[in-house]
Recover the amino acids of this structure.
């Protein structure tokens, strides 16, 4: 029960940030917003504002901002389809953008509370390559294979990308430079290349923000690589999880500490933002695609036809979600 509650809180946070992005920019550019909804399906709670109805719906997967003229023709001067192209593009992009903002906020909280990893070594694991090569706590990594190192993320990425090669690592130890040669080993549990070192952590609000941006870019880079492999037929769908899988992962994270939960929430938020930018009907990326087409041809597409395409896409996405729920149940719970 606790796992489900935590998962619902995470889903709710992601949806609120995403939809608030659409909502705030829509209001800013003068679009009439009929409803701000958290969840899907039948309404279980609502509050009527001056113009907008704020509601919570029974299924906590997703949400939406219902704007005048978004999926239908409208003569209202405040309708979505009567606003300038740049304004509509900003409204659509604002949702995924807020997911990236949320990820940075969560990462910043984590890095500020526990500190951020530096290039200084705190611990060396016994009987692993780093110890056997003579690396000691307090050593600072300054270069790997002749390339300057400025962050822990660069260390991890370089080690993983050279898992089958011997690394030339340059360190500063007691103000003296030393060079070691190490071949990484593969950790069985994670299948990641490691050499057996743990970073020293340091607290700094400014650096936490900078490190948060670095971490987000690192995650986005990994997702882009996955998309390339997926669309190229080189990635397995086993690496993709649906709502039930996310709840399971949240439960596993909750068994450790709050930082693991916040980190997972940040990762999910980045995933949500990037997936929403894919040019798929019913997603923000699909709507953005039609707006780009409008800009290229110099006139808007038929709102009714575009609305039908997005409705079809939505139905297909719901079907895909139900399929993913089935796959998750089989995968994680063995039913």
């Amino acid at each position: 029960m606790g796992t489900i509650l935590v998962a619902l809180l995470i889903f709710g946070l992601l949806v609120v940030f995403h939809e608030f992005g659409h909502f705030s920019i829509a209001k800013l550019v003068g679009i009439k917003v009929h409803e701000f909804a958290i969840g899907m399906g039948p309404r279980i709670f609502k509050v009527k504002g001056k113009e907008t109805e704020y509601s919570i719906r029974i299924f906590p997967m997703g949400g939406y901002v219902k704007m005048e003229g978004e999926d239908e023709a409208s003569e209202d001067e405040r309708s979505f389809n009567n606003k300038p192209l740049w304004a509509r593009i900003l409204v659509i992009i604002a949702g995924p953008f807020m997911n990236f903002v949320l990820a940075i906020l969560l990462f910043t909280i984590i890095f500020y509370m526990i500190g951020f990893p530096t290039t200084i070594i705190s611990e060396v694991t016994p009987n692993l390559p780093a110890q056997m090569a003579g690396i000691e706590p307090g050593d600072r990594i300054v270069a790997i294979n002749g390339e300057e190192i400025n962050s822990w993320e660069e260390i991890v990425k370089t080690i993983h990308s050279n898992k089958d090669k011997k690394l030339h690592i340059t360190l500063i130890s007691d103000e003296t430079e030393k060079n070691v040669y190490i071949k990484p080993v593969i950790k069985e549990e994670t299948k990641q290349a490691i050499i057996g070192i743990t970073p020293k952590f340091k607290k700094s609000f400014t650096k936490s923000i900078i490190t948060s941006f670095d971490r987000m870019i690192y995650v986005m880079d990994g997702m882009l690589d996955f998309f390339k492999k997926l669309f190229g037929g080189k990635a397995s769908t086993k690496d993709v999880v649906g709502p039930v899988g996310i709840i399971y992962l949240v439960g596993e994270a909750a068994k450790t500490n709050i930082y693991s939960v916040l980190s997972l929430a940040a990762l999910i938020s980045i995933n949500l933002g990037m997936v929403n930018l894919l040019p798929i009907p019913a997603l923000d990326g699909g709507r953005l695609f039609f707006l780009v087409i409008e800009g290229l041809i110099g006139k808007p597409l038929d709102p009714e036809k575009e609305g039908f395409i997005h409705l079809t896409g939505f139905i297909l996405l719901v079907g895909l979600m139900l399929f993913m729920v089935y796959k998750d149940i089989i995968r994680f719970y063995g039913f």
